[in-house]
Amino acid sequence: MIADCSALILAGGDSRRMGSDKTQLVLGDATLLERAVASVAPLFARVLISVRNYRPEITLPQVCDAYPDAGPLAGLCAGLAHANTPWVFAIAADMPFVQPALIEALAGRRADFDAVVPRVHGHLQPLAAFYSVRALDRLEAILAAGGSRSLRRALETLKVATVNESDLLAADPTLRSFFDLDTLDDLAAARQSENHK
Fold this sequence. Notes:
Number of strands: 10
Structural class: alpha/beta
Helix content: 25-40%
CATH superfamily: Spore Coat Polysaccharide Biosynthesis Protein SpsA, Chain A
Distance between the termini: 27 Å
């Protein structure tokens, strides 16, 4: 259990490329949202779900974006604003293979940073990362300014511990944690992967 941290599952995307609500797609015997909850619930005492608008079918605590149509940055800010812990671990609902060992490995890197973010295949992975609530004011200022609301761009304003993939392999040898489902082809690949476990 990572006692000083809450989990935040971002489930407010519009799923344009998928064509339907990704969180309700079934993989194995659970929806993507249920799988995301199952991956973080053993490690965190509190799990928050970031949504655009309240969804009555979700029984876990929900946080709604204060800035409409502002993407994942708005969801992250909503989670940080409602966390009752000093840290939040943010994950996208469409990442069904996140390994608990990887989360624990990242947690150990927090020290005096504002965020701990993996870098995989040369790209930062801001939706499988730890964020300190100390960063909230700076992130909200970016939303309020109304310019670029890119989460990766927002990281440039924070003191970030970047964790390279070579340091993640012990926790997740295939780096499967970072596979996300954006299209129907991705979903088909994930289902095929599940069938050959």
